[in-house]
Amino acid sequence: MRMMNVGADSSTSFPKLSLSLASTHEDVKEVQRLRYKVFVEAMGLETLKNHEGIERDEFDDVCDHLIVRDTRTLEVVGTYRVLSPRVLSQTGGFYSEQEFDLSRLANLRPRIMEAGRACIHPDYRSGGVIMMLWAGLAACMQREQAEYLIGCASVSLADGGHTINALYRKLAADHLSPPEYRVSPRLPFPLHDDPLPEGLQVPALIKGYLRSGAWICGEPAWDPDFHSADLFMMLPLARLDSRYARHYLKEAEPA
Q: What tens digit of pLDDT does each residue of 58-87 get?
């Protein structure tokens, strides 16, 4: 995958950004430091604190890591972890299988790519970084000839679960997958029938998935480690909205 640069001229206050795949152990360490900064320090996840200041798990060593850097400082400001079908034998399954039963998707496994651990530095959340990461996902899907993108979208439970309850009820009405693609949570988050609040905001990551054509494939799972509830999202490449397809796939073309 080629390196891509976007952004305003260096004389402006906007950063120039570059997209690449992690190619060294130190690249991966930088990704893990950013994840620690966002997931542990900013979100206050006490159970994940450690003296190294990195957030990692057993999937990191076999996955690809998309990296967005600020080219002026070379700081890693965004990342996505990518698990392709060719390494499933090394991991024993997708990360999301820790939270969801994916039995109904068994026949699709050789054509599925999983994206996870989406993370963007708080100072770079204006939209450019996530667009570059999505272009990188498109490039990876082309390389792996994957037809389906899956991933877990997390919603904080800091408010006692009111947001995830309202989000699921609101979004499932229009974005629930056909029954043959449904998954079931291993540890379901309890939902209730309280009235939907006014002005409910859909998180940017989930909104991006849905605008691109993704489905929600079932009720949310409870993730105690991250103090969140997760929605299983699935985007068949055939459903990718034409406007986004033109943008992502153009950006993903090899040099």
A: 999 999 999 999 999 999 999 999 999 999
Q: How far is CA 93 from the centre of its chain?
A: 17
The one-letter amino acid code at 47 reads T
Write out the two tokens for 144: 């792996």
Domains with residue ranges and CATH for the chain: 4-251 (3.40.630.30)
Give per-residue pLDDT as tens, 2-39: 334 344 333 335 579 999 999 999 999 999 999 999 98
Helices (H), the chain: 25-35, 88-91, 128-144, 162-175, 204-212, 242-251
Distance CA 116, CA 157 (A): 19
Angle at 254 between CA 125 and CA 130, to 5 degrees: 10
Name the DSSP class of 159: T
Q: How far is CA 47 from the centre of its chain?
A: 21
Place of tokens 């060294």: 24
Give the tokens for residue 157.
């439970």
